[in-house]
Design brief:
alpha/beta; 374 residues; eight-stranded mixed sheet; binds S-adenosylmethionine
């Protein structure tokens, strides 16, 4: 469901800058999946930015679909030297707003100096700056509700000024994350933002359903429902099945099928309209310390059959277009790399993969993205 821009908003191409999340490659893949932007370029500053050419404005509903992007703004000015920024541009962008938040990601441009100049010129009552070379914090951005937030960064030897139009709705993510009636901290849950990004990477046609056959407490399914998909879920564990049902009903979902069954036997599910599998299988018992080579082999051997069964099942689903699957990653080595030649792949090809492991995470995650072979 690559989004075509709203016709009513069509305007000449505009340059946008997106602030990537912790894993820039994930953000890039998600943007490519959701929008049909041209010229996507990743800039590695203190925070990673992705600059794109868009044929129309990015609406807030469109931005809200994203899981792994933090902010987005239109680039409204380009200038060669720090002292060349025309305050008239900021005055126009501010309109009636009297508070300005400024992030500068470049050493060559002082947010503080700009703030002082803008205040001295009487354009604002108050300004807020990020610590040097960094972005405003989420709390600072939230405090700017009645103000304008701008971002200054360096690109192709020039300074660029963007007005931030969209910021990640931290409260909405927190609500779906922390207020979930049944959580499972022991087996581990997929972070909400990552679950959302994974659903976006799958991009099935809008009328097709999303299947998570290792549904746990239903994280992936909740994000899929929030994005407008019907869902099918299953899990071997009756406790997980009950948990998912409770969580989905709390989320006021009305169209779903959740069944207790194991991955090798999905016959009891109605798979007739499933367009994508988005899932995190069991990736091994949580580890408290660095995993030895020997134990790594044992963990991979323990979970590998689940993946073989998963892909075997996928071959049977005629409407399936894509699979987005978490594989365990230990000591920089992912089970995906080991299994890739053994997975039944008559119908699906690996199109990309991205590691989202955190430093010091003993079992991390590598996401494999598979698409139907045309
Ligand atoms: C890591 S959890 C999934 C977490 C889920 N993504 C979430 O955030 O809630 C893996 C799930 O796989 C299930 N599972 C393990 N072995 C299975 C099997 N053979 N067939 C089906 N489900 C299985 C477990 O019961 C567990 O709920």
């Amino acid at each position: 469901m690559s989004m075509k821009m709203d016709k009513a908003q069509t305007s000449p191409p505009v340059e946008y800058v997106f602030v990537a999340g912790r894993v820039p490659k994930l953000s890039l893949l998600e943007l490519k999946a959701v929008f049909d932007f041209e010229n996507l370029r990743v800039l590695n500053l203190t925070s990673s930015l992705i600059v794109v050419k868009a044929n129309a404005l990015v609406g807030s509903e469109q931005f809200k679909r994203l899981g792994s992007l933090r902010k987005a703004g239109q680039i409204i000015a380009t200038f060669d030297r720090a002292d060349e920024l025309d305050l008239g541009i900021l005055e126009k962008a501010l309109g009636d707003l009297r508070v300005l938040g400024i992030s500068s990601l470049t050493k060559g441009f002082s947010a503080l100096r700009l703030g002082k100049a803008v205040k001295k010129a009487g354009l604002v009552r108050r300004f807020v700056v990020a610590s040097h070379g960094d972005l405003l914090t989420d709390a600072q951005s939230k405090g700017l509700k009645k103000g304008l937030e701008v971002l200054i960064f360096e690109d192709e030897g020039k300074f660029k000024l963007a007005t931030i139009e969209h910021s990640q709705d931290i409260d909405a993510f927190r609500h779906r994350d922390r207020d979930l009636p049944v959580a499972d901290p022991i087996r581990g849950m997929l972070p909400t933002k990552l679950a959302r990004a994974m659903v976006n990477l799958a991009q099935p046609r809008p009328n097709l359903k999303i299947l998570d056959p290792f549904c746990g407490v239903g994280r992936v399914l909740i994000e899929a429902i929030d994005l407008g998909y019907e869902v099918v879920g299953s899990d071997i564990d009756p406790v997980a099945v009950e948990a998912t049902k409770k969580n989905l009903s709390w989320f006021k979902a009305d169209s779903y099928q959740i069944v207790e069954t194991e991955i090798a036997n999905l016959d009891r599910l109605d798979l007739s309209q499933v367009g994508a599998i988005v899932t995190e299988s069991f990736i091994g018992q949580p580890q408290q310390a660095r995993v030895s080579k020997h134990d790594q082999g044992l963990i991979f051997a323990q979970v590998a059959p689940l993946y073989l069964d998963l892909f075997k099942q996928a071959e049977q689903i005629s409407t399936l277009q894509s699979l987005v699957v978490v594989f365990p990653e230990i000591n920089n080595s992912s089970l995906l790399d080991i299994l890739i030649d053994k997975l039944p792949k008559n119908r699906y090809d690996l199109v990309d993969s991205v590691s989202v492991s955190r430093p010091r995470q003993f079992i991390g995650r590598c996401i494999g993205i598979f698409a139907k072979i045309d």
